[in-house]
Structure formats: C-alpha cells, structure tokens
Amino acid sequence: MKKKFALITGASGGIGEAIAVKLAEEGYSLYLHYHQNKMAIEKLLVRLQSYEGEFIPIQADLSTKKGYKKVAKNIFSLDAIVHNCGISLYGLLSELEEEEAEKLINLHVTTPLLLTKQLLPKLLTKESGNIVVISSIWGQTGAACEVAYSTVKGAQIAFVKALSKELAFNGIRVNAVSPGAVQTAMLEGFSFEELEDIKNEIPMGRLAAPENIADSVSFLLSEQASYITGQVLGVNGGWYT
C-alpha cells in the first residue's frame, strides 16, 4: 500500500495527540508539528512506535510571521493537512493587548492561510487530498470574554468555505471540525464548579474527549466523506446546533 502522509500542527496538545494516534492507526505517516512541548512529542513518538508509518517531528513557532516556512521546508510527500495548532485567550476586549491580538491572528489565521498556500502544490500534483481545520464552537456563535478568539475561529470557518470552492475541481476537499468544550489542558484554568456549570449547559451533559475530535477528523479524511467539502462539523454534544 502506498504511504499516505499527513501534517498535524499542534500535535503536542491533547487534541493533536489524539488525531495523531487515530491517523497512525489508519496507516498514515505523520509530520508532527510542535512549538515548546518537546517532552509531549517524545512521548507521542514512543506511543506511535507500534505503528508502521514514518513519524517526523517538526519544531516551529507558528505564532510568528515566518514560523510556517520552517514547517513547509520539512514537508515532502503530502496527502492531508490538519490545522490544529491554537491557543485560547480569555478577557474583555477592552483589556486586549496588541501583542496578544497579533499572536492570535498569526497562529489561527495567517499561518493556516500561508502554510496551505506553500504546501498546496504538493496536493495539486496528486489531484487529491484533504485539508481539515480545527475551529471552535465560538467561531460559529461567538462568546463574551472571548471576542478575539471567536474572531479568529470565525475567520478559519470563512477560510474553509472559500478554499473548498476554489479547490473542489482539483479533487481536494476542505472542511472544518468545530469542537465545543474538550477535556484538554485548555480547560485547566477552570475550577471544578465552573466545569460543572459548563457540563450543565451541554445537552449531553459531559465534555468531549479528544478522541471524539480525532474520530471526526478521521471521517472527514476518509472516502466515506468523499462528497463532503466546505462543511463545518460541530462536535459539541448539542451545545450549539
């Protein structure tokens, strides 16, 4: 069987790790991007040893203007891109610092845009491929005290909808997964009581596991989704419909 290669940005995080394991199970070889958490990537590489693919770590700071170039120059054969890298930011818009806004925009909008542009020829030569963006429920409906984060996540959804139309005839599908609250390090700043309040707002009464997001990415990359492009798959337990 011919090797399939996927790039996962933010592979050192909870969702990124779950996506990596799921795709490795399905026979993908992986480019595993990370920024600072080298220990998490090393643990992930050990976990992936039982699979037959190639697993290549790539370190880069994608919140900087040139970070995407460091990733792109280490990518050779490519069949799928999973834009998963991201950070959250809580606080009133009136308290937003210019540096924080610039970092959010670079990481969530500029980097996916320019990294995709840089890597697109590798997909176009194959006349097939997939791009999946991990957006957020807040990109769909918005959240008070997360205005900047909601803005960049909404921009990701616009990117998916536009690019999917541009690439559809070339056999390349572009979709988004939009998680709600996921049990990862991103929620560690919440108290037990706050997390219980969130669970009570969710119709299914629980947080998502990272594996729920990984399963959704797997589906969108699969032949079962061969006629799906430009879509936003909400994985939120009914929190937003």
Summary keywords:
241 residues, 7-stranded parallel sheet, alpha/beta, Rossmann fold, globular
Write the layout of secondary structure elements.
Blueprint: E1 4-8, H1 14-25, E2 28-34, H2 38-47, E3 55-59, H3 67-72, E4 80-83, H4 98-124, E5 129-134, H5 137-141, H6 147-167, E6 172-179, H7 192-201, H8 210-221, E7 232-235
Parallel strand pairs: 1-2, 1-4, 2-3, 4-5, 5-6, 6-7
Query: What is the number of E strands?
Result: 7
The CATH superfamily is known as NAD(P)-binding Rossmann-like Domain
> What topology, given as strand order, has the largest sheet?
3-2-1-4-5-6-7
Q: Helix and strand string, N-terminal first?
A: EHEHEHEHEHHEHHE
Biggest sheet layout: 7 strands, parallel
Number of helices: 8
Q: Give the fraction of residues assigned to helices.
A: 40-55%
Structure description:
This protein has 241 residues and is α/β, with parallel strands linked by helices. It has one domain: Rossmann fold. It contains 8 helices and 7 strands. The chain has a 7-stranded parallel sheet with strand order 3-2-1-4-5-6-7, with helices on both faces.
How would you briefly describe this protein structure?
This protein is α/β, with parallel strands linked by helices and about 240 residues long. About 45% of the residues lie in helices and about 15% in strands.
